[in-house]
Amino acid sequence: MQAAVVGLGSIGELHARILIELGYKVQIVTARKDTVFLPNQVEIFESLDQTVSKEGKTLDIKALEYIVIANETSRHGETLAKLSELGFKGKVLVEKPLYTNAPDAPEKVKDSRREYPFTVYVGYNLRYHPVIERFKEEAEKDTDRLVSAHCYVGQNLNTWRKGRPIQDCYSVSKAMGGGVLRDLSHELDLALHLFGKAQKIKALGGRFTNLTKDSDDVFALLLETENCPIVSMQMNYIDHIAQRTITVNREKSTYILNVKEGLFNKNGVIEKFTVAREDTYRKMHQDVLAKGEKVATLEDGLRVMHMIKEAEREAEREVNKDSAG
């Protein structure tokens, strides 16, 4: 079984380690010169065009079953295009978000094969968090109406990648795909996954501190979705107490899903889950490599990108309205 990981930042390294654990022979594509990652267990190539490494090893794209794209968000599109050009036919998992900016309307992409000659999934691994899975189980049994939901995620950007200066992280740059709307787009995907497609979007947000160069650091959204009339959401780079929660009100019950702490609370009855960082990624890879029943599809990824696009438009309208006033 052969796989490749494109990009070797911290997330690319995590993907590679998990695939090795799952029994895959892993090839890594990275331009980094300081690579020391498991040298005896992987083969390293500088680019997808480099078919033979310095050690004489061959990168045969067509022989691979599975490729994970974990380079900069701004390069996801060109990497997918390159795989098409090279004739890859297997499965691809793209780290979230799918692109820096939304392309054509997601309604035009009903099947990933129309866009690419391979199957594309998007790495929204929080779908596999046990607290989220537990809520989905309960939701299948609940017969009362969904009334409202509130999603909150915040963590100070200075604490994200320890050992790396904040200004070296792509998060601070809009051009590189940074900003809370893209970095924390898990919440947008979870809204789709739990409450259905967004039908209306209102938003406020932008850059309010000096944490970033030019990317947004706080956003608040108000959604109407297929199955829930009101879904509110805040995401930020500011919070000095890292938090990730979803509160859901139904007619007969209230849920608090504390993803950060692994707590599932239904009407005051709490269940505790122990979750290691790699657990949700491992379950996601296993799903992709099996039937892909729960993983975010290409269309899901495009829908998230269009939610981001619409939120930015809404925020810009509000800024222009204030300026005009």
Describe this structure in words.
The structure is a single chain. With 325 residues, this protein is an alpha/beta fold. The protein has two domains: 123 residues, Rossmann fold; 192 residues, Dihydrodipicolinate Reductase, domain 2. Helices cover 28% and strands 25% of the residues. Helix 1 packs across helix 7. The longest helix has 27 residues. It is globular. It starts with a strand and ends with a helix.
Basic shape: globular
Tell me the span between the first and last alpha carbons: 62 Å
- Taking strands numbered 1, 2, ... along the chain, how are they ordered across the largest sheet? 8-9-10-7-11-12-13-14
Per DSSP, what share of the residues sits in E-state strands of 2 or more residues?
25-35%
Biggest beta sheet attributes: 8 strands, mixed
Order of helices and strands: EHEEEHEHEHEHHEEEEEEEHEH
Number of strands: 15
* CATH fold category name of the largest domain: Dihydrodipicolinate Reductase, domain 2
CATH superfamily of the largest domain: Dihydrodipicolinate Reductase, domain 2
CATH architecture of the largest domain: 2-Layer Sandwich
Structure at a glance:
This protein is 28% helix and 25% strand. It has eight helices and 15 strands.
Give the secondary structure arrangement, pairings included.
Blueprint lengths: L1 E5 L3 H12 L3 E5 L12 E4 L20 E4 L6 H10 L5 E4 L17 H4 L3 E4 L7 H12 L4 E9 L25 H4 L2 H10 L2 E9 L11 E8 L4 E7 L6 E8 L3 E5 L4 E4 L2 E4 L4 H13 L6 E2 H27 L1
Parallel strand pairs: 1-2, 1-4, 2-3, 4-5, 5-6, 7-10
Antiparallel strand pairs: 6-15, 7-11, 8-9, 9-10, 11-12, 12-13, 13-14
